[in-house]
Amino acid sequence: MDAAKGLEPQTRKLLEVCRLSGLPIFTFCNKLDRPSLEPLELIDQIEREFGLTCHPVVWPIGSGPEFQGVLDREERMVNIYCDKKREEKNTLFLFTLFFINFTELI
Hints:
By secondary structure, the protein is α+β, with helices and mostly antiparallel strands. The protein has helices spanning 9-21, 39-50, 102-105; strands at residues 58-61, 69-72, 77-86, 89-98. The protein has a single domain (9-105), classed as Rossmann fold, CATH 3.40.50.300.
């Protein structure tokens, strides 16, 4: 699913076929490094149009030029992306931060 365009016609058709067939649906949003719709808008499109309940596994941190990475809710990690220019090449660095729920420790 294109994060900027939301549900496109071919995606709508595919989701409808899967829904009618009772197939599990796992999808992802791409192009988050470009200006995009808010994650809740994308979820709302799917839930409203197809009557499906969405369960985000990862959550973007920013979008477009402000895109910083993703929060992995399942693995309880934050993946931070950082572009660094080295000699005429763009290199992507990935930093992973683990987080804990302090209420679970009590």
